[in-house]
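Proteins fold reproducibly. Take a sample protein:
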Amino acid sequence: MRRREFLTMAGAAAVTSFSIPRATAQVANWPERPVRCIIPYAPGGGSDLIGRPWAEALSQTFGQQFVVENRGGAGGMIGTEAVAKAPPDGYTLLATPGATLTVLPHLRKAPYDATKFVPCGRTGDFVTGFSINAQVGPKTFAEMLDYAKKNPGKLSYGSAGLATATHLRLEMLKFKAGIDILHVPYRGSADALNDLLPNNVQMMNEINNIPHVKAGKLHLLNINDTQRHWDFPDIPTLTELGYPDSDVPIWYSIQGPPGMPQEIAEKLNAAMVKLAQTDDMKSKLRAVSASLPVQSTKQVAEFFAADSQRNADLIKAAKVKLE
């Protein structure tokens, strides 16, 4: 063998022998620097109420900062796309409601493949319901339906944006109840709430309206969950009101970009499972009207797939389209 060939082969062998252990070490030692957690909505909404306590808890757990970055717009698509295009090294994560991955792709062409994200863990389920401005008149779900049928198109509904879970809740209601309510999308639920309180729009189905329900400015019409809310035991669920299979929570999760090593997802999930069972995390989320499911990465992926199919079926049946 010639000397040049020998040196080339020896060099290649050296690269192979050192590159694999180094990559393994990078995963094992993750995180070694701050981690960006992109929330694909404007500040002040439900995504912040869920995402920021988790960022704080994970920072304490791993000894590295998990930095929240709000990047709203296009119904969550801009921030989600940013994560999809980020290096898959575990230092950019998506802290998102399910809608960006299980609703939006069924309504418009998304600049990312939702099925390629790497599920890391569930971060909470918001327990909320339809609410209506107290100035309108109806105080119950039945009264709202009666008002909407007698005044088609007069009620307007604010959501966190087109193709969000709360937008789809309205489409579900319109389809199943046969009523006409105007949808008004905003850049985030905080902006929608700012128009709901002065009655510029009349209805919402967002978590940040709960304090205003307690203050009497809004009437809570129903609960979107399999059981009644701990703070509103007299308010029925949609199933109790005759709309079975409609009590699907607004769920949130942390997702890694496509191609992120599964080992990082598992390491993050293990920490999240432990945190989810602490009294501190439970109390923080319950304070913002959120329950806290505990799931493995496999269970998150299965839940993701089922929710995506459920939304696809509703969008097709209700003939939901974006303007």
